[in-house]
Write a structure and sequence with these properties.
The chain is mainly β. The protein is 8% helix and 37% strand. Helix 1 runs antiparallel to helix 2. The longest helix is centred in the N-terminal third of the chain and has 15 residues. The N and C termini lie far apart (48 Å).
Length: 506
């Protein structure tokens, strides 16, 4: 006990107020009981193993599709589709690969319906079937090819799974990521079950992935560049303008979306231009460039019913450059999507581009670094991540209120620390909405956290903020927050993109 008291004394010498003394007491008691006081290691909560790729296969994984029967389809940027058999084997070395199709053009989207596998190539949406059940596709049919390609290296095409109406959504990168030299470059298209193409949204620059949230609304990731101050997650609202006017020349070719939107003013801010351009859909999530990666890519919604941890219905979004998987908590306010993003999983072997859940809630991640480079260091990889069953201490969700935010945590809090406003700090910033490439963080402010009120069950904190900033990222740091036993947050930071402030308490 004497050593514990000495620890309290030493710690309290470094604190200048009562909160510091109480924090030191919690830490000292935790230490005396042998309790973990750090935020924990990723492997405590999520464990990743690598599926070995047979020699001779260049598995630059552009898309993934779970097929059932312990099989995963994996497409490559070289135009092949492989089936990984025994994909959930306890020993990843027990998996095997067989070639399902080849000779395709950079497949960056896969979906399954009945006995057909659908894929998007740069030039068309294709479906394939194995008629004689020998594991190879025998029939290839063009579903739709009503868009153009010039041969430019950057004319990527990403496609979704089937939506609730049986449509596949396709997002088309600009030519060279700067111009729109041929039909519908910089657009989102829908292809109906009958194969009809419907122009859906304009204003796209350089997508990295596309997927639905739990409500069935479609989102895509767009990357930093012209008219994109940083990478972002954007809601593909039918009839909407995503923000880059370069491809809007194709409004002359379709009447489906009405007249061409007004061009935004370069050098303005997106929330200001959205007040002038009704079609402009504000970016739902800004991913701060650097802290949250550099190249946002594949998207998957966690609908595992808790089998992948306490983040049901949130989006998991890859970053190709940083070889990570981020976590996104969305909400709609006044009909507009916004929300918070959080660091989540890291340490993957290559540049994460594609992501897919199996039926047992194993997260498969496919990587490639060709042409882009990635923190992981390997040219390609196929890996899978499992939840260990141990719940990390995290901000489970961050929701806007008229005068601040509600933070919900995965474990009960130390109330003394959590109810002290000085345990939190917040900065806000936004990005220049401009025709130039990217943007620094601008228009910074430092809101004052006026109060922090903890719920009776100790898992929710209401933060009252003196001045919310529309159009800004609200960066919240809370490194002192801990559980009742003294465990610190695994990831003590959140980034909330605020497009709308609710008119009343929800």
């Amino acid at each position: 006990m004497k050593s514990v008291l000495n620890t309290i004394t030493l710690c309290s010498m470094n604190y200048r107020n009562i909160k510091g003394l109480l924090s030191a007491l919690v830490l000292a008691v935790a230490l005396s009981q042998g309790t973990e006081i750090l935020g924990g290691e990723q492997s405590d909560y999520y464990r990743t193993d690598t599926i070995p790729v047979p020699e001779g296969i260049v598995l630059e994984a552009g898309a993934l599709q779970w097929l059932g029967d312990n099989q995963m389809a994996v497409s490559t940027r070289l135009g092949e589709i492989y089936i990984v058999d025994n994909a959930l084997a306890e020993n990843p070395s027990d998996t095997t690969f067989h070639l399902f199709a080849s000779g395709l053009h950079e497949v960056l989207g896969l979906a399954k319906k009945d006995d057909w596998i659908y894929c998007v190539q740069r030039c068309e949406l294709t479906r394939m079937k194995d008629l004689d059940h020998d594991g190879r596709a025998d029939v290839f049919e063009t579903v739709n090819d009503d868009w153009g390609i010039t041969g430019d290296y950057h004319e990527y095409a990403f496609s979704s799974k089937f939506d609730r109406d049986g449509n596949i959504w396709i997002v088309l990168c600009l030519t060279g990521s700067f111009t729109s030299e041929i039909d519908y470059r910089g657009w989102c298209l829908r292809v109906t079950p009958e194969g009809q193409m419907i122009p859906t949204s304009s204003g796209i620059r350089s997508p990295g992935g596309i997927g639905m949230n739990a409500l069935g609304d479609m989102f895509y990731t767009d990357n930093q560049g012209v008219w994109n101050g940083t990478s972002g997650l954007k809601h593909l609202k039918p009839g909407g303008f995503m923000g880059n006017p370069t491809g809007n020349r194709w409004y002359e070719s379709t009447k489906a979306l009405g007249p061409r939107p007004l061009d935004p003013v370069s050098g303005s801010r997106m929330h200001i231009e959205a007040g002038k351009i009704p079609e402009l859909v504000p970016t739902a999530i800004y991913f701060p460039y650097g802290p949250m990666g550099q190249s946002a890519s594949g998207i998957i919604c966690d609908q595992s019913d808790g089998k992948f941890g306490p983040f049901e219905d949130q989006l998991l979004v890859c970053d190709q450059t940083h070889s990570t998987v981020m976590r996104v908590d969305l909400e709609q306010v006044n009909g507009v999507y916004q929300g918070a993003c959080f660091p989540f999983l890291k340490g993957y072997d290559s540049g994460n581009l594609s992501v897919e859940f199996s039926t047992d809630a194993t997260l498969f991640v496919g990587g490639t670094d060709r042409g882009w480079g990635a923190r992981g260091g390997k040219p390609f990889a196929l890996q899978r991540t499992h939840w260990t069953g141990k719940t990390p201490f995290e901000i489970q969700s961050m929701k806007i209120r008229p005068d601040g935010f509600d933070l919900h945590f995965t474990q009960p809090l130390n109330v003394t620390i959590a109810s002290d406003p000085s345990s939190y700090s917040m900065e806000t910033y936004t990005y220049i909405y401009q025709s130039g490439y990217g943007s620094p963080e601008v228009d910074q402010s430092s809101p004052v956290i006026q109060s922090a009120t903890v719920s009776e069950d100790g898992t929710t904190v209401r933060l009252k903020i003196d001045q919310l900033q529309v159009g800004h990222v609200h960066e919240l740091k809370l490194s002192e927050i801990m559980t009742q036993s003294g465990e610190l947050l695994w990831n003590p930071v959140a980034y909330y993109t605020l497009n709308e402030i609710p008119k009343s308490v929800l």
